[in-house]
Amino acid sequence: ETVTVFAAASLKTALDEIAERYEAEEGARILRTYAGSSVLARQIAQGAPADIYLAANSAWMDHLEAKGAIRAETRRDVVSNTLVLIAREAPDIPDLGQPEAWLGAERLAVALVDAVPAGIYAKAALTSLGIWDEVAPAVVQTDNARAALALVASGAVGFGIVYASDARAEPRVRAIHGIPAALHPPIRYPAALTARARADGAAAFLDHLSGPGARAVFDRWGFLPPGPAAPPAP
Amino acid sequence: MSLDLSVQHRFDGFALDAGFTAPEGVTVLFGRSGSGKTTIVNVVAGLLRPDRARVSVCGEVLCDSASGRWVPAARRRIGYVFQDARLFPHLSVRQNLTYGQRFSPAPLGTAQSARIVEMLGLGALLTRRPGALSGGEKQRVAIGRALLSGPRLLLMDEPLASLDEARKAEILPYLERLRDEAQMPLLYVSHSTAEVTRLATTLVLLHEGRVARAGPVADVLSDPELAPMLGVRRAGAFLTGRVARHHEDGLTELTSPAGAIFLPRVAAAPGATLRVRIAAQDVLLAAAHPSEISALNVLSVEVLAVRQGDGPGVMVQLDAGGERLLARITRRSAEALGIAPGRRCYAIVKTLSVAPFAIGENATADP
Amino acid sequence: MSLDLSVQHRFDGFALDAGFTAPEGVTVLFGRSGSGKTTIVNVVAGLLRPDRARVSVCGEVLCDSASGRWVPAARRRIGYVFQDARLFPHLSVRQNLTYGQRFSPAPLGTAQSARIVEMLGLGALLTRRPGALSGGEKQRVAIGRALLSGPRLLLMDEPLASLDEARKAEILPYLERLRDEAQMPLLYVSHSTAEVTRLATTLVLLHEGRVARAGPVADVLSDPELAPMLGVRRAGAFLTGRVARHHEDGLTELTSPAGAIFLPRVAAAPGATLRVRIAAQDVLLAAAHPSEISALNVLSVEVLAVRQGDGPGVMVQLDAGGERLLARITRRSAEALGIAPGRRCYAIVKTLSVAPFAIGENATADP
Amino acid sequence: MTGWLGPEEWQAVALSLRVALWATVLSLPPGIFVAYALARWRFPGKLWLNGLVHLPLILPPVVTGYLLLMLFGAQGPLGRALEAAFGISIAFRWTGAALAAAIMGFPLMVRAIRLSIEAVDPRLEAAAETLGAPRLWVFATITLPLALPGILTGAILAFAKAMGEFGATITFVSNIPGQTRTVPSAIYAFLQVPGAEGAALRLVIVSIVVAMGALLVSELLARRVSARVRGS
Amino acid sequence: MTGWLGPEEWQAVALSLRVALWATVLSLPPGIFVAYALARWRFPGKLWLNGLVHLPLILPPVVTGYLLLMLFGAQGPLGRALEAAFGISIAFRWTGAALAAAIMGFPLMVRAIRLSIEAVDPRLEAAAETLGAPRLWVFATITLPLALPGILTGAILAFAKAMGEFGATITFVSNIPGQTRTVPSAIYAFLQVPGAEGAALRLVIVSIVVAMGALLVSELLARRVSARVRGS
Ligand SMILES: Nc1ncnc2c1ncn2[C@@H]1O[C@H](COP(=O)(O)OP(=O)(O)OP(=O)(O)O)[C@@H](O)[C@H]1O
Ligand SMILES: Nc1ncnc2c1ncn2[C@@H]1O[C@H](COP(=O)(O)OP(=O)(O)OP(=O)(O)O)[C@@H](O)[C@H]1O
Ligand code: MOO
Ligand SMILES: [Mg+2]
Ligand SMILES: [Mg+2]
To answer: In whole numbers, what is the pLDDT of chain C averaged over residues?
Structure first.
C-alpha cells in the first residue's frame, strides 16, 4: 500500500533516507511530496490526496487543525531545530549583540521575516537581542531559508541566519555563532494524519517518524529531538 | 439577365452617386483614374457596404439599404478579377485556379476547365506559387480563377492591362464567346479602346463619381458631344449589316443600308446580322468617287454636322443611307472640300480598319 | 549616358540569357508575358543578383560577376517604378513622394517637384495614405516617387498600364521631356503601341529570355519580318523631315525627301529635324494621284517588296524618295492595283495619323 | 544515461513532456479562436476578454495556481461541478498540471497568433469570399495557413513555457512523484536541499536539451512555411 | 486609498511599476535588434542565439534567478567586472530586479517582434533601397514602423511579465522592502502566512488594475497603428 506524505521542502534529504529504508524494511510505498509548508497546507485544505502532513512550523498545522483538515489526536512534533549565524570564511564571533563589530558593511541573508518560519524566528531572535532595528537595513530576505544559505555559500552575501541542519549540509559555510533557543519561539516540525487519511500504513509511518530509527537519521542531518531543545554550543 | 444598380457612397473627399442598368452582354465602366469604377465593382461584389445602395441581378436583390437586405459576397456567385491579382500566395497556381470550384452549384466540366487553362497559357505554371510568377502570369491566373468558379456574373477590373497584345488577342475572343454563349453579364472596367470596341455592348461613362452617360455602346461612342470626354481617338460609329458572303481572299462582305462593306473574315454564317465599328480617325472624305485605290469601302454620304475641336481637327457627322458615321479630318481639308451640313461626298474606309462587333450573335473575328 | 548589360540567370523552368546596350533616350523592353522583362529590370536596379551578369551605366560598372563587383541598390541612383506600385502603406502620399529626396546628391528644386506633383494630379491626395487610393492613383504616386528621387537612370515597368488615356496623354509628354531634356536614359517595359511609338528610341524585343532583336526603334518597327512578332497593327515606318513652317490652322508642315508632310502642330522650331511615324495600318495606296480628298499627305512611292501574311492582308514595303514606308492593305486591293515590286503608285496618309517622334530634340506634340 | 538520472528523474522528464505536449495541443484550438476573435471581431467585452487572457502573465504564478486551486479543488465550484458531472477531478493530477501550463502559456500563444492573423491581408479573404467560399472555409484555407508562422510561434512559446512552468503548477497540483512532479518541481525540490545542486543541474540540462530540440524543429518548420509563401 | 493599502504596499506598487517600465524600455532596443537578426539574417550560431533567448522561458524562474546571481553577484564574473569598471552593483538593487524582469520577458518580446518583422514585405524594403536609402534608414523608416504592431505586442508582453515576475526576481535580488520588494514578492510573503489572503488579494487587484491599464493603452495604440497602415 502507498502512503502519501506532504512535507516541507527543507526536510527532503533526511525524509528521503528515512522513507527509503522504511520502504525496504516494511515493503510499504512512501510517496513524498515536497513544497513550502503554506502551499501544502492549502492543498490539503482543498482535498489533496495526502495522508501525512509534515510542516516546518506550527502555524500552518494550527490552521489545518482549526479547519478540521487533520486528525488533531495524531498531531505531534517530530523534530526541532535551531538557528545559527553563518559566513563563508569569517572567524567565530564573541558577541552577537554587537552587530557593528561582526556585520560591518556586509549584508545579512534570512528568509522572509514576516512570512517564512526561518525568517520569523530570526527576526524574533534579533529583536530579543535588541539589535533588529540596527540590522534591518542590511537584511536580505529570501523566499525560503535554503535560498539564504545559497546566498552566503555563493559569496553574494556575507552573513546569514539559517537552520543549523541546513548549515551543516553546506560545506562552503560555517556556523560562526549559535542563536540561543531562548531568543525565539521553539522551532518545531509538527506532523499529523490528514482527515482523509485512510491507510493504516499511514499511522504506522507517522509513528515510525517519531521513533528511534528515524531519530538517528534526523540526527545525522542536524535536526534535534522534539521538545525543549538544549541550546547548541557556540 | 441584367444588373440594376444605384449606389451612393462618400469617402473622405470623394462622393459616389451612380446608377445604371447593365443589360445582357458586356457593360464597360469607363472613366478617369479615381472616378469610382473600382468602388462600384466592389459594391456589386459585396465587398464594400456603401452608405446607400440597391443592387439586383436579374431580379434578385443583392443589396438594398431601404430594406436592409445584404447578401454576403460568398453567396452572390459573382466572379471578380481584381485590379491587383490577389492570388493566394500559399497555394499553387492549380490550387488557386480550383479554389472556387467546390462551391459552384454548376461546376465547369474538366474539358471546359482544361480549355480555359490552355487559353490562358497556364499549363506550364500549375505547380508554381504566385511568388514565382511574372506580372502578366499572375493576372492570367486571376482571370482563370474567376472563370473556373462558374459565376453567373463576372466583374473584371482592368483584367488585361498588364498583358501583351498577343495574349490579349487570345483572351478577348474567349471573353466574347463568354458574353455570347454563356449569356453571362460582364461588368468590365477598362481604359483600352480596343477592348471597349471589341467587347462592350453597353458603355457607362463615369465622371467624378457620377454617371456622365450610359447606354448602348454604339450610341455613346458615336455621340460627337462625348468625343472630348472619351478622347477623340476613341470616337467612332457603328454600321449594321447582313453577312452577304465570304470571299476566298479572306474578306467578308456585308450588305448594309450604307452600301456594301468589306472587312476581314468574320465567323458568322451568311445572313447573320453583324455590327461593325468604324473609328472616326480611320475615315477619309473625298469630293468625288475615287478610283484605283486600295480601300474597298467607299460610301456615299451626306454631311449632317461639323463640330470644331480645339486642335487642327474637326469631327464630321455623316448620314450613310440612314446610318450615322463619324469622320475626323483636318480643318484645312474640311474647308478645301467645302464640308458643311448638306454637302454630299464619299467616305473612304480601309477594309482592315473595319472591326466586327457582335452582339448576341455567335460571331467572332477570325484571328 | 548609356547602359550596357549582359545577364544570365536561371529560374526553375525559365532561363534568361540577354544582353543589349541602351543608348541615351528611351529603351523599351518589349516581349510577351513571362519573357523576362521584369527580371532584367530587377538586375539593373540591383534587386536581383543573377547567376552571371555585367551591368554598367555610362562606364561605371554596377555589377560584374567576373570581378565580383556588386554595387548595392541604394548606391546605384536608379529610379524604379515597379509593376506593382509598392507604395509604403504607413506613409502619406507626400511622405512617399519625398522619401528618396534626402538621399539624392542632386535634389530637385521645389518648383520642379511641384510641377511633377501637378502633372501627376496628386495635389489633392497628398495627405492620404496608399490604402485609400484607386489603382491609377497609386501608380501615379509611384511614378512621382521615382522621379522625385532625382535618379540618373529610370526604370519603368509598365508604368502607365493602369492609367486612363487622358492621364497617359498628360504623362507621356513629360516622359518625353525627361528623355530629351534631362538626357536621362529610361529603360521602359511596355505593352502599348502608343507608348512604344511615342517614347522609344531603342527597342529590345525579348522572346523567352533571349533578345530576339534590338536596335533603333525605326529599324525594328519597319522590319516587315518582325511584323508577326510585334503584331501587325504595330508595324510602321519612320520618315525624317525638317520643320518647314507652322500653319495657322493647327498644322505643321515638314519637308522630307518623300515630299511635303502635314501633321498636327508640333512644338519644334522651323528648321528642326523631326521624325514622324506612319503606321502601316494607316496607309492607303492609289494608282493615280487622288484629287479632292481629305488626306493632305499624298506621296509618290515605288513598291519594293510585298509580304503575304496569313490573313486577308499583305504588307507592302515602299520607297518614298529614298525613305522606307510600310503599308498594310488587302490582298484583293493589291491584286486590283497590280501591286508588285517596281510598281509606282501613291501612298495616302491622313494628316491626323502622322505621329511626331522626337529624338534628342525639344519637340513634343501640342496636346 | 539511466545511470545518470535516477528513475524518478526520468519519470519527471516524461511527465513534463506529456504535460507540455497536451497543454500545447489542447490550448491551440481555443488559442486560435480567441486570437481570431481579438484580431478580427468587434464585440462588447472584447477588452475584458483581452484582459482575462493576459491575467496569467500579469499575476505572480503562485497566485494563478492559488486561484486554480480555489476553482478546481475539491471544494471549488468548478472542481465540484466536474466531479458531479463527469466524476473527473483534475487537481493533483497530471491533467491539472497540463491545465496550469496551458493557462500560463495561453497569453503567449494568443498574442503570437493574433499578431499573425492581423498581418493576413483581409483583401485575400475577400477574394476567397467572392469565389463562393463560406467564412469558415476561408478561415481554414486562407487565414489559418497564412497565419501559420504565428501559430507555430505561439505553439513553441506555449510549449517552452509549459516545460518551465513551476509556480502555478506546484501550487495547483503539488509535487507528487509520478503524478505531478514535473521537471521544474523536481529541480525546486533539489534546490531546497544543500548539496543537491548537481542533481538539479542534471535536470536543468535535460530540460534545456528537450526545449532546444523543440525550438529547432519549430524553426525548421517555420522556414519551410515561409519559403512556401514567398514562392518557389 | 492610502488607507486601503499600507505604505509598504504602495512602495511595492511603485517599485513594481518602475521595474517593469525600465525592464520594458531597456530591453526594447536589444529586443528589436535580436528579433531583426533572427528574422532577416543568416549567420553561424543563429540557432544558438535563438536557443539562448528562449532559455528564461524554458527554465524554472528560480534557476534563471540563481544563474543571474552566479553571474552578477558580488563573486560572479560579471558582478565583479561591473564593480571594478563602474563601481556598480546590481544584485539586491531595484536595477537587478529590472534586469531579472527584462531577461524573463525577453523571449516573449523577441518572438513577437520577430514575427512582425518577418511579416514586413521585403519588396517594400527593396523599393526604399532603390530610392537611395541606406539599410539603417530603411530599417528605421520602413521595417520598424511596419513592425510596430509586433513591437507594441512585445512591449506589452514584457511589461506584463515584469509586473508578474517573481521566481527569478526574489532569487536574484531578494526581497528588500523599498528596494526589491516588488508586488509579486509582497503577495508571496502574504500567502506564506495563514489568514493573510486578504492583504494578498488587495495587491493582486492593484496589479491587475495597473496591467489592464497598460493593456488598454497598448490596444488603443495598436488600433491606431493598424488603421494608419490600412489607409484613411
Ligand atoms: N522567383 C521566381 N522563381 C521561379 N520563376 C520565376 C521567378 N520569378 C520569375 N520567374 C519566371 O521567370 C519568367 C520571367 O519573369 P518576368 O517577371 O521577368 O517576366 P516579364 O517579362 O516581366 O512578364 P510580365 O509582362 O508578365 O510582367 C517567368 O516565366 C516567370 O514565371
Ligand atoms: N478607402 C478609401 N478612403 C478614402 N478614399 C478612397 C478610398 N478608396 C477609394 N477612395 C477614393 O475614391 C475615389 C474612387 O476610387 P476608385 O478606386 O473607385 O477609382 P477608379 O475609378 O477605380 O480608379 P482607377 O482607374 O485609378 O483604378 C478615388 O478618388 C479614391 O482616392
Ligand atoms: O511566470 Mo514564472 O515566474 O515563469 O513561473
Ligand atoms: Mg480602380
Ligand atoms: Mg513583369
So the answer is: 84
The answer to whether position D2 is within a domain reads no
**What's the total number of domains in chain D?**
1
Q: Which residues of A touch E185 (CB under 8 A)?
A: 143
Q: Please state the pTM of the whole predicted model.
A: 0.84
Nearest CA among B226, B223, B209 for reference residue B29: B209
Q: What are phi and psi of D153, to 5 degrees?
A: -60, -45
Question: Residue B358 pLDDT > 50, yes or no?
Answer: no
Burial A185-197 (b: 16+ CB within 10 A, else e): ebbbbbbbbbeeb
Cα distance from A94 to chain D (closest Cα, Å)?
A: 27
Q: Which range has the worst mean pLDDT, B66-70, B312-316, C162-166, D140-144?
A: C162-166
Q: Is residue C111 exposed (0-12), middle (13-18) or buried (19+ Cβ within 10 Å)?
A: exposed
pLDDT tens-digit readout, B280-334: 888 889 988 887 888 888 899 999 988 887 677 888 989 988 888 888 888 888 8
Q: Output Rg (C-alpha) for chain E, integer angstroms.
A: 20
D131 band by pLDDT with thresholds 50, 70 and 90: very high
Chain B residues within 8 A of D146 when measuring between CB atoms: 89-90
Nearest Cα residue to atom 25 of ligand 1: C33
Proximal ligand: closest to the CA of B33: 2
- CATH number (3.30.70.1030, 3.90.180.10, 3.90.330.10, 3.40.50.300) of B3-221 reads 3.40.50.300
Task: Name the residue range of residue D86's domain.
Answer: 7-231
| B249 interfacial to chain C (CB closer than 8 Å) | yes
Query: For chain C, which residues make up each domain, given as ranges?
Result: 3-221, 236-361
The dihedrals phi and psi of B97, each to the nearest 5 degrees, come to -65, -40
| The CATH number of the domain covering residues in C236-361 | 2.40.50.100
Ligand minimally distant from the alpha carbon of residue B204: 2
Which of E126, E133, E146 lies nearest to residue C47, judging by beta carbons? E126
CB E174 within 8 A of CB E69: no
Are C and A close enough to touch, i.e. 3+ CB pairs under 8 angstroms?
no
Distance CA B164, CA B161 (A): 8
Q: What is the CATH number of the domain that holds D101?
A: 1.10.3720.10
What's the complex ipTM?
Answer: 0.82
